[in-house]
């Protein structure tokens, strides 16, 4: 039995972070054919549910790059890989040295997600804050408001490439941390970074679902560095035309652009849908 796993941004969703009508119809065809599917995304639960709501993503969702797995049927998290206080402060110190505002993503005891941040220093950081609050529907609060009971899933930030690399180098001695980066806002002079527990990879999440749900084959779709780990454990992996070069090199094949329903068009041909 085959499970299909989609990255969301830059892959299943278009540039407006939307799931198109054509892609939605393709998912309906997959359901009719009995082909199971789910998502593996860097988004939190609230941010992931918006674009896919109504398209019957019934299987567990791999969220925050595999740091947590959400089970829709149980309405609860089945797995989580959280950061220690020492790891959090190490990352925050490294970001502060590079004058990067940390955005701290938390999972609180009642299941609430929130983002806590330091002082916003630039128009770009304000844009990032607006993205988290307006598009991703996450409560955004100052760091001083973060409760002691909050569990940290990951820290994010945005800066020029040299500053991002300096942070990664400064935390290299933390063996349980992993950092993912990518181009920010289509601006080659800025990169985003996500830092979280090394066991919380998309590949780890895919492996967990495969083993617990009994799938023999996994087909994955992704466009960025954080998708490489699931490419490595999948039976087949596909990168849209807009993907990073290293992702294309690692993929089984390169398919159509995410703004041209590349994933959906490939699925219709691959599974002879419709």
Could you characterize what this model shows?
With 274 residues, the chain is an alpha/beta fold. The protein folds into two domains: 2-80 and 200-270, HAD superfamily/HAD-like (Rossmann fold), CATH 3.40.50.1000; 85-197, Hypothetical Protein, Haloacid Dehalogenase-like Hydrolase, Chain: A, domain 2 (2-Layer Sandwich). It has ten helices and 14 strands. The protein has helices spanning 8-12, 21-32, 45-52, 85-97, 123-135, 161-170, 202-213, 228-233, 245-250, 262-270, and strands at 2-6, 37-39, 61-63, 68-71, 76-80, 103-107, 113-117, 140-142, 151-159, 177-184, 187-197, 217-221, 236-240, 253-255. The chain is globular.
Task: Summarize the structure in short.
With 274 residues, this protein is an alpha/beta fold.
